[in-house]
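Morning, I've got a small favour to ask if you have a moment. I've been staring at a protein lately and its backbone has me curious. You're getting the sequence in one-letter code plus the fold written as tokens. I've dropped the whole record in just underneath, so have a look:
=====
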Amino acid sequence: MKILLKWLLNAGALLLVAAVFSGVQVESFGSALWAVVVISLLNTLVRPVLILLTLPVTLITVGLFLFVINGLMLWSASGMLGGLHVAGFWAAVWGAILYSLLGLAIESLLARLFPQQ
């Protein structure tokens, strides 16, 4: 139940990013749900490899390069889906930053709703 709620809230967060930032466009809530699924898969499968390959750059930038990797994940998802459009690389980075901040808020909310015992 927690995962389903997390996906629904993340889809809403992606729609909110699209509403406040013109560089990201989402056609519908269904498109946002598919985008969340694809982003989750990319973050599970591809992101760890990218983090490992770019570890020196990430260490030099004190972790700030992770925002670039998050932007690449969002940009890649937009290339795979028809309902998600990102204007370019830097739009993807800024959209990913906003999406990450909303994701932190969602994680905090879910931790309060579903406390671990």
User: Anything to note?
Assistant: Strands lie at 24-26, 84-86.
